[in-house]
Specification:
about 65% helix; 5 helices; mainly alpha; about 100 residues
């Protein structure tokens, strides 16, 4: 997107750009939280989740907005809350370091 200051509807050619988002990315955006909740949490995965939250969370929320999937974004965040207790059990896990 050219700027976060433009409303989605005001971005030239947005419909064509959205059509280029393939099914794999759509699936990943929608179901990463579910798969995280079903995983065997370990230190390595916890570190990757922390990196995602620090560096990519806002991009994911924007993608979900563009895909008109904000309710699914809420579900993904709910799954993240479910596993957050596991994440914080790992020594040295901090969202902000």
């Amino acid at each position: 997107m050219p700027s976060s200051f433009l409303a989605d509807k005001d971005v030239p050619g947005i419909e064509e750009k959205l059509q280029r988002i393939d099914d794999t990315l759509r699936y990943a955006c929608n179901y990463w939280g579910y798969h995280l909740a079903q995983s065997n949490m370990d230190v390595e995965l916890a570190d990757k989740v922390r990196t995602f939250l620090k560096k990519r969370l806002m991009f994911w929320i924007e993608a979900m907005n563009l895909l008109a999937n904000i309710p699914e974004a809420y579900d993904g965040l709910q799954f993240l809350l479910e596993v957050s207790n596991l994440l914080f059990r790992f020594k040295n896990f901090k969202l902000i370091s």
